[in-house]
Amino acid sequence: MRRFLALSLTALLFAAFSHQSPLHAQMVDCTVSVNYDAVQNTNKDLLRDFASDIKEYVNNFQWGAENVPDKVKCTLDIFIQGVTGDNKYLAQVFVGSQRPVFKSKNSTAVIRLKDDAWEFTYVKSRPISHNLYSFNDLASLLDFYMSVVVGLDSDTYDRDGGNASFQRASDICSMGNSSGQKGWQVATTGYSRKQFIDEILMPKLEPVRLASYLYHFDGLDSLSINPDRAKKNILLALDQILKVRNDYGTRSLLMKAFFDAKYQELAQLFATDTDRTIYRRLALVDPNHQATYDEYSKKP
């Protein structure tokens, strides 16, 4: 693949903070699942084509300017939780994405998010239309998360590579906020689309995005070339996040999302290291998953 050709050349040069800019995937390969258990049979029939309509909408659209063949792998798991009116629904959405690790059969999770507040209108047999400049309670949420997914993926290959995608997501969120539609405002507790995208674009949290690049590009992608140096780069990325956490506090949705996707991988990555104190370091930067790190620290 074209971006991996660029990646392999850069990795072989092995600069810990390389400025090479491999090409980014601009389309997605999204798996969509919909759970209708909470609604009556009449509504289940009306939603029969919902999953396939969403899949067609997100997979047949180019989410960026470059026509690059590599696609971002992602998932949308949608749980319909209620019917609020004619053709109007309330749903919970789990958004996930992953990308391959260089010279490995493994993939790594980039994002895992749960959104509890999606209210939308869906009419069976009516196509979902793309219009990034007009708010729609159904299409705009898909546009928002596909922009976020592509942006986060781009950030793992290039410093600030996701800027254009994130700005698009921010513009969509502003339209949603102006519409008054539930889920697009800042929430006092829990997850908020607006807080999440605002944090991504917040200058004082930019080191977290740079840490993602260091973690993936100079860390995971280099494990097959120089494992010791790759792990050092991963720890440098975590130290960078810890510094931001100490300055910003523990309220960050961006940091939470990073570790929700990575904590199992981190725990397993250092499982064979003789220095078990690494798990205290992991718990310090990611206290929400301390139980997992404690469990691994006790393994022989």
Question: Would you write up a description of this structure?
Answer:
A 4-stranded mixed sheet has the order 1-2-3-4. The chain is built from 11 helices and 4 strands; from the N terminus they run H-E-H-H-E-E-E-H-H-H-H-H-H-H-H. The protein has 2 domains: 200 residues, no CATH class; 92 residues. It starts with a helix and ends with a helix. Strand 3 and strand 4 form a beta hairpin. By secondary structure, it is α+β, with helices and mostly antiparallel strands. Helix 4 runs antiparallel to helix 5, helix 5 runs antiparallel to helix 6 and helix 10 runs antiparallel to helix 11.
Low-confidence stretches: 1-24
Strand content: 15-25%
State the end-to-end distance: 39 Å
The average pLDDT is: 89
Strand pairing plus helix content: what structural class? alpha+beta
* Total domain modules: 2
Cα-atom radius of gyration: 20 Å
Largest sheet: 4 strands, mixed
Cross-sheet strand order for the largest sheet: 1-2-3-4
Instruction: Identify the overall geometry.
Output: globular
Helix content: 40-55%
Key structural traits:
300 residues, 11 helices, 4 strands, 4-stranded mixed beta sheet, alpha+beta
